[in-house]
Design brief:
Keywords: Membrane, Transmembrane, Transmembrane helix. The chain is mainly alpha-helical and 150 residues long. The chain is 81% helix and 0% strand.
C-alpha cells in the first residue's frame, strides 16, 4: 500500500507543474483573445461614430472642402481626422485588413482634395501610422490618375 503512495509522491510534483503550466497557457490565450476583442470593439465603435457624424453633417462628409470657410472648414478637418482615426483603428485589426480596405478607400476618396493638399501632406500625414499613410497615398495616387466621374 505504501509503495503505491510513494509512486504518487514522486509523480504529483510533475503533475502539479503540468496543471499549472496548462492553466497559465489557457489564461494567456484568454488574455490575448480579450485584447483582440477589445480592439475590434473600439475600432467598430469609432467607425460607427464617424458614420453617425457623416449622417449628421452630410455636407462635410461629401468632401467639398474647397467651398468651406471658417468654422465649417475647421469642422470638416475634424471630421476627416475622425475618419482617419477610425481608419487607423480598423487597419490595426489583422483579420479585417482586406475586409475594410475597399470601404475605407471609398470613404477617403471623398476627401481626395483635402488629403492631397499641401497643408495635409506636410503637416498631418506623418502623424498617422504607416498603414494609414500607405492607404491615403493609394487613394490620392489612384484618384489623381482616374478621371472624375460625372
Amino acid at each position: 500500500m505504501w509503495e503505491f503512495a510513494k509512486d504518487w509522491a514522486q509523480i504529483v510534483p510533475d503533475f502539479t507543474l503540468l496543471v499549472a503550466l496548462s492553466a497559465f497557457l489557457i489564461a494567456w490565450r484568454q488574455l490575448v483573445l480579450n485584447r483582440q476583442n477589445q480592439r475590434e470593439t473600439t475600432a467598430k465603435s469609432t467607425f460607427r461614430e464617424y458614420l453617425r457624424l457623416a449622417v449628421q453633417y452630410p455636407e462635410l462628409a461629401q468632401g467639398n472642402d474647397g467651398t468651406l470657410k471658417g468654422n465649417e472648414l475647421e469642422r470638416y478637418k475634424w471630421l476627416v481626422g475622425y475618419l482617419l482615426w477610425s481608419t487607423e483603428e480598423l487597419l490595426e485589426l489583422k483579420q479585417t485588413e482586406d475586409v475594410w480596405t475597399d470601404n475605407l478607400k471609398m470613404l477617403l476618396g471623398y476627401h481626395y482634395d483635402y488629403l492631397s493638399s499641401k497643408e495635409f501632406t506636410e503637416q498631418e500625414l506623418k502623424t498617422y501610422s504607416t498603414k494609414t499613410q500607405a492607404l491615403i497615398q493609394q487613394v490620392t495616387a489612384r484618384k489623381a490618375v482616374s478621371p472624375p466621374s460625372v
